[in-house]
Amino acid sequence: MLRWIFGMLFGMLLLISVLFGQLLYNAGEDKEKQEPVIKPEYHLQIIVQNTDEYFWTFFKEGARTAEEEFGVYVEFVPVSQKEAGVIKEAVEKGINAGVDGIAFQPADTEQTRDIAAKAKDQGIALLTYENDSYNIPDTPMVGSNSYTIGTMAGNMAAEAAGGKGNVVVIMNEAGEQGDVLYRNLLIQGIMEVFSSYSTIDIEETYTINKDMFEAERVASSVISDVKNADLIICLDERSTPGVAQVLVDNNMVGDIKVVGYGFMPQTLDYIERGVIYGTVCPNSYEIGYYTVKQLTQRLKGEQISDYTPTEVYSIDAGNVNQYTDIIK
Questions:
Q1: Which residue has the higher pLDDT, 227 or 99?
Q2: Which pLDDT band holds residue 133 (cuts at 50, 70, 90)?
Q3: pLDDT tens digits, residue range 161-192?
Q4: Cα(129)–Cα(139) distance, rounded to whole angstroms?
Q5: Alpha-carbon span 285 to 268, nearest angstrom
Q6: How confident is the model over 58-82, as a mean pLDDT?
Q7: Is 108 helix (H, G, I), strand (E, B) or coil?
Q8: For residue 315, what are the β-bridge partners?
Q9: H or E element that contains 46
Q10: Residue 163 — φ and ψ, nearest 5°?
Q11: Rounded to an integer, what distance in angstroms lies between the CA atom of residue 212 and that of residue 267?
């Protein structure tokens, strides 16, 4: 009886040994089949705005595509506001951390030049994106042209108004000097288009801050104060749906047309419903992609352009469905 029990235990032990050996063999074989871990060639930091604008959603997708294509590591560093001191502090942290390259949106000239000099001393590549208000020596830029955005918005407004009418422009308030220049370029683009029409002109210009409810307040002011307004151009992504909602609430859809900015789902929905005539959008996916690509090429010592322009496109009732499908 004992001999039988010992025999059974020995057999079970043998079976366990065989199974354990097979497990070790398979593990070793799987390890050999795994791709070797590739260390990214460069560590890049991109300073981004911590907002819910869809610009940043597609910007990051474009950057991730380039990250995989060029074998680099991209780290997004969010900041609460586009203010010169905040951005400078974020960039300086990246410089002190010893990253290889940094991309950011400048908010002034003086502090940005200080950052550029410090980065150059540390051998760190810098690139600015989506802000053509500054000319920083030896610092390339990627992004859309604000004058072009203005002309596209002006053309869409002229089309929506039938070449005549009184236009109100709503824009972000100018904080830093570069914001003033950016706004001026937008207005210049709109005025360039309107100069071809003797019957269409800018009646009033309003400024808003980043508070979404501010857009609704300003739109209400337009309705009450500018009695002869025929069209509103809103050049802020987050504020465009708020302006449209005020027209809906006041039963003024069609009485005042709207040309907006950006790619928010609510904006596309309002275009489909005929509340917003159309919107002008920077290609944020392309901006994110070329930001990483240009920064990587610069680190490799390749010659790159001082300015890489990216696409600006328009969405109206004729093509809104294809963009709605993209978001879905």
A1: 99
A2: low
A3: 999 999 999 987 655 544 567 778 899 999 99
A4: 10
A5: 18
A6: 94
A7: coil
A8: 279
A9: strand 43-49
A10: 80, 10
A11: 14
